[in-house]
Amino acid sequence: MRRIAISVAAVSMSVTLAGCGLGAASSSDDASPAKGDDITVGLLLPEKANTRYEQFDYPIFKKKVESLTDNKGKVEYANAEADADKQADQMQSMIDKKVDVIVLDAVDSHAIAESVTKAKDAGIPVIAYDRLAEGPIDAYISFDNSLVGEVQGRTLLEALGGDLSITDKIVMMNGSSTDPNAKQFKAGALSELKGKVTIAKSFDTKDWDPKNAEKNMSEAISEIGLENIEGIYSANDGMAGGIVKALRAAGATELPPITGQDAEIAAVQRIVAGEQYMSVYKSYPDEAESAAEMAVARVQGRDIQFDALTRDRVDSPTRQDIPAQLVPVVALTKDNIQDTVIADGFYEVSDICTGEYKAACAEIGLK
To answer: Do 124 and 104 touch, CB atoms closer than 8 A?
Structure first.
């Protein structure tokens, strides 16, 4: 059993997936008499700036719930568009509609705690998805966030090469201060970067917004000097795109290595073209499908299946020993695009190697 304190950087260790793909729902005859297949699952996602939520998480989650319930179960979906107050209203709407279970990816993990308590008081279990919400949640599923930061930091150091020096200056573009995941990514990255390079400028980027990242990067360039920036830690791909815009606007022709996360199609294309060094590939199908399995098992009273899917343990600032599943991640560079996002059916070569990227794809054997 693995235990992680979310408020503190976790010690890096490999994670054995507990029940990924394990415990597919059995026939409705095995379901609790209280809840059969005719269930409603509430899904609350945080924003649309990161394309993954609308493109992957929601449709994959919905399809899995339907397959687990013989197409009798339905998903009540809402996206908060980075507005914590809006998400609280959406949560209240789910409670008023008396959904059977809520899967929540919080905009603000602290602010949503009151809504989680209201759901619990109404007898509706809440599963925290991707970000650990505070309050009396029943379970948590996410990627190993500290490991994500470590992979980003380690890969950035590798990109800087063998002549790495403590005098080499990098910029850190971290995620939103209201997102507990951002704190873990940052802590994981710092565990690799501290003492090896100089962090010349560090930002906590409001709402993970690429435009805010672009503005922050322009500020860093003005203060540090374009020629003095050896590398850039970007916590996700969307912000990496904003960073590239700022560098180009400042006159950069050769870009320093830039990290990312989420394997967005635009980021994969930037990696192919040499504008972004790496991303972190996370299997959203694994996360979304496992979350759907957890939600259905929880509301149907299938405790054995639920326990098999949540063999890890985490602590939040308000609750300890939360059943969890932590999904591992992979560093994505131009060297393993074929073996990761393409092999897993995430994208096809034709999705990546469009127009201006065809020649770069051919150079790395992607065709």
So the answer is: no
Closest Cα partner for 328 from 60, 104, 53, 20?
20
Strands 279-281 and 330-332 turn out to be antiparallel
CB atoms within 10 A of CB 217: 29
Neighbouring C-beta atoms of residue 170, cutoff 10 Å? 26
pLDDT at 346: 87
Say how far residue 120 (Cα) sits from the centre of its chain: 25
291, 326 contact by CB (below 8 A): no
pTM score, whole prediction: 0.74
> pLDDT of 135-191, one tens digit each?
999 999 999 999 999 999 999 999 999 889 999 999 999 999 989 899 999 999 999
CA 332, distance to chain mean position in Å, is 15
HEC profile for the chain? Answer: CCEEECCCCCCCCCCCCCCCCCCCCCCHHHCCCCCCCCCEEEEEECCCCCCHHHHHHHHHHHHHHHHHCCCCCEEEEEECCCCHHHHHHHHHHHHHCCCCEEEECCCCCCCCHHHHHHHHHCCCCEEEECCCCCCCCCEEEEECHHHHHHHHHHHHHHHHCCCCCCCCEEEEEECCCCCHHHHHHHHHHHHHHECCEEEEEEEECHHHCHHHHHHHHHHHHHHHCHHHEEEEEECCHHHHHHHHHHHHHCCCCCCCCECCCCCCHHHHHHHHHCCCCCEEECCHHHHHHHHHHHHHHHHCCCHHHHHHHCCEEEECCCCCCEEEEEECCEEECCCCCHHHHHCCCCCCHHHHCCHHHHHHHHHCCCC
Sign of CA dihedral 49, 234, 177, 101: positive
Residue 38: closest CA among 302, 305, 300: 300
Nearest-angstrom CA–CA distance, 287 and 294 = 10
Distance CA 135, CA 22 (A): 28
Q: How far apart are the first and last CA of the chain?
A: 43
